[in-house]
Amino acid sequence: MRFSVARLLVSALIGTAGVQAVFPRPEASDVSSALSPSSTSTAASSSSSQVCNNSPVLCDRHYNDITYMGAHDSAFLRDATTGNSVAGNQFKNATFALDAGLRFLQAQVHNENNTLRLCHTSCGLLDAGPLENWLAAVNDWVVGHPSDVITLLLVNSDNVDVSKFADAFEQSGIDKFGFTPTSKTEWPSLSQMIANDTRVVSFITNIDASTTSPHLLPEFDYIFETPFTVLELDGFNCTVDRPSNAGSASNAFSKGFMGLINHFKDQLIVGDVFIPDTNTISVVNSAATNATGNLGLHIQQCNQQWSHRPSFVLVDFWDQGTTVNAADNSNGINDATGRSSVASNSNGSSSADGVSSTRELGMGALVAFFAATLLMI
């Protein structure tokens, strides 16, 4: 979400009390296992085949040759804990996402009173609590899933020194799983990373590489991204948007960059204020390839244009549509195991009802607020 002089207006509208960032384990009423009762959400190894990130096919594949489906702004929820804030990008939190098969989590970090906090644009707008707490919850999940490799991407909004992030990683306990690459072009296989228990790859924007914390990686030394402000279904493309030194996609891949697809649609509210759009979410988050705006089509187009599968994909409201299926299709797997299926939204509604009710609440509040503002002019 982006703001200018309208920030105070929108903050008054959708600013809420701080969101608890310590994620509880999913309750039985919220998540139903996709496996038999004797199975768990941990990707277990059978006597004949190891399973990595929910599939034996991925074990021998190199880290940079896999598509990881990811939750954009994963800490910022549109649910009862935020008053169904229209600033929220997700209905389900990070541990739900990991249980469902996502292996990529992105979040925005601000330095508030010398504490790193997960805040959406500003801590006065939507505050999901200390980064350390969120990392601790993710660490608990990683500890319980020894056959999984995950990736984190943190937006360092205030250009904080890497040492402060290192402190949060250390205090949360997740630093012990940190992976340090030795090359941009040669990455190990998932099975090698699992064997070495270096199963968390962490990218951070606006930092310099650190010899004291080599597992905290400057994002744009390794990743290029497609454009991220999309207002129309035909606006998704595979152009290299940043960093500027990546050049064309072919040039970027030759340098060892991995590709990240931003696949989420915003809605213009007023001026230059945008909010995550749920109107077309069934199209945007569909693994299909036959309609403009489909997630599956976007991945397919980039794969064809780049001659490489994208490494990372970011979506809003990941539990709507068939986002994980889109990653499976990109990876060429149909034997995934050990995932949980989301039975309902956090507010207790069905998926379809959840989109409708939260959108109605948010837009009603927007209309009322701007009407009141006009009356005061």
Topology:
Elements: H1 7-14, E1 31-33, E2 68-71, H2 94-100, E3 104-112, E4 115-119, E5 127-130, H3 131-143, E6 150-156, H4 162-172, H5 190-195, E7 200-204, E8 216-218, H6 219-222, E9 223-225, H7 249-254, E10 258-262, E11 266-270, E12 273-276, H8 281-284, H9 295-306, E13 312-315, H10 323-331, E14 340-342, H11 351-376
Parallel strand pairs: 2-3, 2-13, 3-6, 6-7, 7-8, 9-10, 10-13
Antiparallel strand pairs: 1-14, 3-4, 4-5, 11-12
- How much helical structure, as a percent, in the residues? 25-40%
Instruction: Just name the CATH architecture.
Output: Alpha-Beta Barrel
> What is the overall pLDDT average?
83
Tell me, briefly, the overall form: globular
CATH superfamily: Phosphatidylinositol (PI) phosphodiesterase
What fold name goes in the CATH topology slot? TIM Barrel
Total beta strand runs:
14
Count of discrete structural domains: 1
The fraction of residues assigned to DSSP E strands is 15-25%
Low-pLDDT sequence parts: 1-48, 344-377
Alpha-carbon Rg, integer: 20 Å
Structural class by helix and strand composition: alpha/beta
- Give the count of helical stretches: 11
